[in-house]
Each structure stands twice: as C-alpha cells, then as structure tokens.
Amino acid sequence: MGVLDSKVPSGPLADKWTKHKNEIELVNPANKRNIDVIVVGTGLAGGSAAATMAELGYNVKTFCYQDSPRRAHSIAAQGGVNAAKNYQGDGDSVYRLFYDTVKGGDYRSREANVHRLAEVSTNIIDQCVAQGVPFAREYGGLLDNRSFGGVLVSRTFYAKGQTGQQLLLGAYAAMNRQIQRGKIKSYTRHEMLDLVLVDGKARGIIARNLVTGEIERHSAHAVVIASGGYGNLFFLSTYCMGANVMAAWKAHKRGAFFANPCFTQIHPTCIPVSGDHQSKLTLMSESLRNDGRIWVPKKLEDAKAIREGKLKPTDLAEEDRDYYLERRYPAFGNLVPRDVASRAAKERCDAGYGVNKTGEAVYLDFDAAIMRYGREKALTSGMKNPDDKTVRKLGEEVVEAKYGNLFQMYEKIVDQNPYKTPMMIYPAVHYTMGGLWVDYNLMTTIPGCYAAGEANFSDHGANRLGASALMQGLADGYFVLPYTIGDYLSDDIRTGPIPTETPEFEEAENNVRERIQKLMSAKGEHSVDYYHKKLGKIMWNKCGMARNAKELQEAMDEIAELRKDFWANVKVTGVADGKNQELEKAGRVADFLELGELFAMDALERNESCGGHFREEYQTPEGEALRDDKNFTFVSAWEYKGDPRKAKLHKEELVYENIEVKTRSYK
Amino acid sequence: MKLFLKIWRQKNASTKGKMMEYTLEGIESDMSFLEMLDVLNEDLIARGEEPVEFDHDCREGICGTCSLMINGRPHGPDSRITVCQLHMRSFNDGDTIVIEPWRAKAFPVIKDLIVDRTAFDRIQQAGGYISVNTSGRPVDANAIPIEKDAADASFNAATCIGCGACVAACKNASAMLFTSAKVSQFALLPQGQVEAADRVLNMVRQMDLEGFGNCTNTGACEVECPKGISLENIARMNREYLAASVKG
Amino acid sequence: MSGVISSSLARKFVMALSGLFLVIFLVLHVTINLASVISPEFFNEASHFMGYNPIVQYAMQPILILGVIVHFVMGFVLEYQNRAARGVSYAKYQGSANAPWVSRNMIYSGLVVLAFLGLHFYDFWVHEMVYKYVEAKPEDPTRYYAETVEKFAPFWRTVLYVVSFVLLSLHLWHGFQSSFQSMGVNNKYTSGIKTFTKLFAVLVPLAFAFIAVYHHLNPITH
User: Fold this and answer.
1) Given an 8 Å threshold on Cβ–Cβ distance, is B171 in contact with C99?
2) Looking at this predicted complex, what is its ipTM?
3) Chains that contact A by 3+ CB pairs under 8 Å?
4) What dotted CATH number matches A502-619?
5) How many Å apart are CA C68 and CA A39, to the nearest integer?
6) Which of A178, A228, A519, A645 has the fewest CB atoms within 10 Å, i.e. the most exposed one?
C-alpha cells in the first residue's frame, strides 16, 4: 500500500458508509463555532459543501474568481443528474447505478467510493426538491426522468437543458442563507495562489484580490479545494474561459498527490471548430442522443461532395448513410458511453468521412425522431392519415419542447436550422476524471487539505457517464465531506484561531509575490494566449483521443520547451496592483504548462487503453480499447518532485470484491 | 470585415473614463462578438497597450457573466441571447460599434467594461432561498407532487442568469425583473410559500437599498432579457408585496 | 414624500392608485362636457350642481386636487430617483429598440398635461372662484354654457387644448394599463384590460378635443 492509504472502511460494501459515519469522530456544535474552514471554488461541490458546513456550525470562507458564486461552471451542465430513485420502475437500484458507474469508468475507480456515491444519490434529489429546484415534471405532478449514455434505465433527473444552473442556484441559495446568518464569508473575484502548510497540515491560503491586486493571507483549520477540472489545458474545450488548475496544482506542489492526470473525457457531441479565432467549444447535451441518430456518408465520394458543398446531407438516400454507432454497437446504439462515441467519430473522420469544411464533423440527425414523434402526436390527437407535412410539423413541435433551447443555441452559433438539416458535431474536451488523489474521506495526501467534485480524482475511473458529474459534486458537498471533515477537525477543537503572522504564511506570500514579479517582468514577445493556444495544439494532437508512446514523449519535450519559452518571453501588460486579466491568465497558463507535461507522462506510463485513455498500441482487432488488468488495475498518484517529469509515481491498487471485472462491451 | 469600435476605457473605479476609438480589420462573420474583442486585445498587446477588460466566462450563454452594452442595447442587437452568443454576422463591413459597460449607480464600474454586480447577490442573500437544512433529512422528492404548470412557471422564472441586462436596458436602472424572477421562482412552489411574505418584503427592501430605480412598466427589461423572463413576474411580485404588506 | 413612502413598490402603488382615481374623474368630466354639445340646458344644470353642491365643493374637490398633487409630485420624485439610479449616462442608448416612446416619456406627457391643468384652472376654476367668492355675484344656473363656448372662441386656446388632449391620450395610453401591472394584475384578463385601456386612452381625449373644436366652430351668435 505504500504511502497511499485509501482508508476504505472494512465490512460489506453496502454497509461501509453507514458504518463509517457511525464510527468517525464528531465535533460538538459549540466547538464547531471555533473552527474555520476555507472552501476554494463555489460550484456544485464547493457551494454545497460550504453551505452544509456553515449550517453545521463551522465558520466558512469561500473563494471564487467569478463575480458571484452562482457563475461557477457547474452552471453550464445541461443534461441532468443521476439518482437511483427507480421512480420509473425500470429495475434501477443503488447496486445498478454503482455497477454502471464502475463499468462506465472501465474498472479504474475505487469501488467503495462509487458505492457511496450511488447510495447518497437519492438524497440529492430529495434535498434539491426541498430547496425548490424546479426539476421537470410529468402531468401527474411527479418528477420526470430521461436516459443517458452507457445505461439501460431512465434515472436522469433534469430541468430542461439547464440542470446545472438550477442545481447550482439551489446550492447558491443555501449558501446565501448562511451568508445572511454570517456563517459564510464569501470572497468573490479572488483567486487562490498558494496553499499554506503549518507543521505539515493545510492551515490557510494566499489569495489575490482580482480587483485591487492585493495579496491576502487567509487561515483556517482545513482547506477544501473544489476548483473543478483542468480541461482548459487543451485551450479549446467546453470549459469556461476562466477554469484553471491553480488551486489543485498549488496543493500538488505543496505535497498533494495528483491522480490519473491523463484521464480526460472527450465529449462526443460538441459543435465543431470553425476557425483559428475560436476561443471555446460549445457542448450539445448528451440527452440529444436519446433521439438523434449519428451518421456519416457510406461512400467517400459523397463525403467529399458534402465537404465541397456540392451535396446536401438531406439529399443522401437512407442506404447511402452509415449509422456507424448503431452498426458497431447494436445493443446501446447511439447511447454508448462518451469515450466510445467520441472514438468512433474520430475513426470515421480520420478515414475521410468527415462532413464539414475541415473534415472533422459527423451528423446528428433528428429527422427520424421528428417523424416518429409526429406520427405519435397525430395518433393521440385523433388525426387519421395525416400527410407528411403535418406529421413533420407536429414532430418538430415535440422536438422543440424537448430540446428547443439547445436547437436555438446551435442555430445561433452555426447559422443552420437543425430542424431542417442535421446538426454537425465533433468531440471536444469536456471533463477531467483525474485530479487530486483523495482517500475515502476526500482528504488529499496533505492532512487537512480536502478535494471535492471534479477537482479530485473522483469516482469516475477512466471515463465518466453522462449526468454523473452533477451527482458527484453534490454528493461530495452535501453528504460526504461535511461529515468526514469532522473526523479530522475533532483534533482541532482546542487549537484556536490560526495566526497569519507566521513564517509559513510569510514564505508562501513571498513565493506568490516573486512569481507575479517574474511574470510581470518577462521580456515580452508573445501574449499569454499565444502560449495557451500552442499548448492546446500539442495536447490535442498528441495527448487527445488517441495516444501513442512516441508522440507522448514528443509532447513532454515540446511542453517543457514551451514552458521555458513562456517564462522567458511572455508579455504581460498592465500592472500587478489592480485588475489585470492578462496577469490572471498568465498565472493559469503557467500551471497548465507544468501539468501538461505530467499529463503526457502519465499517459505514457499507462501502457493500456481504458476509458478515455486510448493508446493506439493497445487495441483489439476491431479497434476497441484493450485493457491490461494484470498490470494496470491501479490509480496513478504522482508526487511532485520539483519538475513535472521528475514526479514520483505511487500506485493505489484497485481491488474489486463486489463486481466482476470484465471486458466492457456495449455491443 | 473592417470595423470601427468606440469602447469605454476606465482604469479603475476611482478614475474617470472615456470613450476610445479603435479600427479593426480581418474580422470574420462566424466569429463571436467576444472573439472579435479577443482579436482586438491581441492587437493591443502586440502594440504594448493594455487590452480591454470585459467580463466573460462560459461563452455559451448560461453563466450570465458577459455584460456589454452594444450600440445602445444590452447584449447587442439580437434578441434572446447574451453577448457571447452574438456573432459578427449580425454586423456589416464598415460598421461603427459603440461598446459600453452596464450603467447603473448600483453597478459601479470596476475597470473598462467590467461592473460590480454584487448588489444582485445581496438581494438574494436577503431572502432568495428556502430555509431547509442541507444536512437534514427531507421527505422523498415525490412526496410533494407539483402541478406541471406551476413547476414550469417556476422553472421559467428560475432561468434568470443574473446578467443584469434588465437593469442596463431599463431607462430607470430598475432591478424589478431580476428581483421578481427570484421571488417568483420560490413563490410558485409549495415549498417556497411558507416564507413567501418575509421573502418578498426583505428582497424588495434590499433592492431599494442598493439604489436601483423604480419600475415604470416600460417593458424594456423583458425585451432585452436573454432568457425571456416575463413581466408577469413583476406583477406577481407586486401582488405578493401588497399581500405581505397588508398582512404586516 | 420619498421618506414617507420608502419602498419603491409602495411608490408604484401610489402612482397607480392616484392615476386610476384621476381616470375616474376624467369619465365624469367628459360625460358632463359632452352634454354641452347635446343639451346646453342639461349642461347648465349639471355644472350648477357641481359648482354649488357642498359635498362636491368641500369634499370631492379637495380630494381631487390632492389626487392631482400626489400624482404629479410622486411623478417628479420617481423621475428624480430614476435619473439618479442610472448614474453615468450611456453614450449611445437605443431606448426605442425595446420600449415604446410613450412609456419612456411619461414625464414629458405628464408635464404638458400639468401645464395644461394650469391653463385650465385659470380658465375655469379661478374664474369660478372669482365669480363666487371675490366678486360674490349671485347664483346664476344658466350662465355656464355661454361662458364655456366663449372660452373656445380664440383659435390659440382651442389649439392649446387639442394639443394637450393628444398628450393626455399618450399619457393614458401607457399609464392606464400600467397601473394594473403595478397593482399586480397580470392574468388571463390582461389582454382585455389592455384593449380597454387603449380604447379609453384614445376615445376620452378625442371626446374632449371634439368638444373644444365643436365650440370653436359653433360660437353663440347673439
């Protein structure tokens, strides 16, 4: 086991969490008033954790770089949140959700954590409804569900196309209640620039006030990092522009191990890149795959004609279309998990069947769904023998009610009407399964430093299933972390306030100031975006959907080279003691330039294909991922050693006692 | 595409700002408006000037961070979108585009086009929640059936992204549409009705304290709202407020 | 006044209620005025009643004047606060893109109507006060029709009156329906209310204008 102790409780899987909750230390309410906790990030995980801990009685300080906690990028999640409620009576259960998640993650996640996630999933829905989250309902007034990729039941709760916003507003409202009570102090437009350790324990952070540029010291008895994922490493992604790895990376450099950095989710249904000016990619919810059929032309010459604008997709006969997901995976069809769907799209486009100018797009077609819904609607409205036009009109209305906002978003961006012509989609970086290594209590390898939500290496293994990110963020924040943190804080009831006038804070602050000084005084050849785009290209081309040893090695060298160039030649305009977006970006890109190298090294180290990590050397004759369970059933946890490539690998062996490890098949 | 830009530049909250003019060439029609500004900023950086600071984050129309007054309209000429969803195909070669920050006493300028919207947070802190313990054990979600129409109306109010376009558009810089959306979201649900009276009184009091203007029912907010929040919410808040005041 | 009514919503209610009250007064006023076109005798009777009935004179008249004052003072207070709420004004502001002219310029249509009220008071109310209390002339139930018609003899006054009625129409066009929204009425009847208020906003000022023009064109020939 080495230095990694996952602290998974003993006993039968289904009883572990209950047993653990009963056995851990608690802090009595009077003592909680004497304990401070810092939460960095106010998305679903951070927001819900902050609200819950404040409600329990701790003094909480929250930090976010946005101007309001409500704007964290959890807000952009469209599709929904999973919960094993079995309201549809389709055979769902805690075990099935647990099983689907472990299998979906390609057997690279920790069994006990995933089971706990499935257990508390049902509480999330109860909690959110009580808070007034307006989930979609059926006419009977009960909650509605839909289906997502990689599962055979309908367990996804949703609020039209903006489930993330509604859930975050719920957590934000809970936070507001505690802010009003004075139990949470909310620092907005603040960024954590370093973690402060006192006697080896996390005791505070150094933050920069992004408006005034002031460097501030904040102390606490524990620090929770809930700052999200690091997909912006790729420059182009579905992440928000400000998403960064700074908090997690600083914790890593202070001693927290970074787990599975190469496990990245590439989401199959995003709007394709249109040009070099592109700053961000927009996701089209996975829920669209409930009704949309994915295809490319069967013949190369048709694909070419479409690319040149000589042929319209709607003119292509049914027999000339290749519904490749339905062809390759008859059991799950268009609803295969994300990694599988993404890879299949790449395979077709690489083979020359891509359908947009750049050859990197496939169709997502609603024509069949529109006609099917139209006929159904005509029947229920009592129409006999309606003509095709009427059916189409009725069908479009049904589809609009289901996905109207997504279709509108597509039309605004692409300037094409998706009701009339199929959508064009292509995979894009969407989520990172990797993150800070945490034990069962969500504590990192630094005592007192916790990680929640996407920021930890989480419960998703090598691939996350749709609608599971919201579930995990809220599970961590509402139901897990506020209790497990008490176990640690019970030792701190007599510690008293942590002073900030100490050498440890001094050292961390100087460290931060020096770095800012160094960034501001670099020679100034190229803008920050110039480096970020270059890094993104390396990552996408060599560490993207398909990877091989040679290119990963090249990526490591190129990134190291780029990092050197960055520190020598980056140009940061403006001043350090005021609002300065360029300085903010520079600090974030500097971290990405370190993480990128570790990412490539992790991918190089993992000589197998699993989930979102596809190594070209390791595939079946049919092109499916080939896992190596004998040698790689472990979590890679990297210890910082001064330079990304000198990082030391620790392995947490994964043990599956309750689930049979087998080849993942969606055929 | 060649464009002439007039942009508000202001160093910080305590200095005076002014409109500056820039000429920009090589803009493509499928760029988003913010990507056009990215191009401008890269130009400025290359020339050694400070780039124009503007708020933006998700760039997909949901976080509500972006906030630009473009040619006298919040989020620009198109309806039902935020600036980040606005594309340059809505403009023509040779156009002059005036870009300003939201203007309201309650939204002071922080820098260039960035304003401070924490007034919105404070309005919600005053009562925009249901007092249910997160660590409690609430009843099963389906134990409270909610009529679909009420749930949908609540959802429609809850789609507000808090961008502040309503305040920016209103000739009175009134925050009624925002506040009423937040009030309505809870007032329409059975869970929210318990505290409805206190909620509306407290949120309106905070709204007034922040220095927003009075509503004169011009309807500009509804037209400019990227999420199409309806004026009905304002009427509902007026009703709720009247009832709450009478009850005392 | 802003100290007394500290909530913006309360100020809206006051504005709406005083406005609705004045609308009711307009109905009464236009009804009696129309009589001047149809039956001079009835007009004289009604006017005399209004001029000498103690309830009208000592209860209703002061309430009406108070209603007018509350409405316009509150209008000024709101306008002042609303301008202050903007702070720095926009270099470019396209108000016409999202709200009709009438709704954005209530202060101007209101000011014109207020100025008109000044003239109207001078023309009729001051005249009555002088007649009754300063010169203390005896009651004469037959004088009203002739006095009214005579007022509209000058072309300039008729024009001023007609222009004011146009502005009154614009003020009512937004204000009448807006008062329902302010009081929280927004339901299935709203579109009906809107149609009614718009018809009202056109027809009532039109009737006033018609009366003024009619008397101008039909002077009493002795």
Assistant:
1) yes
2) 0.97
3) B
4) 1.20.58.100
5) 57
6) A645
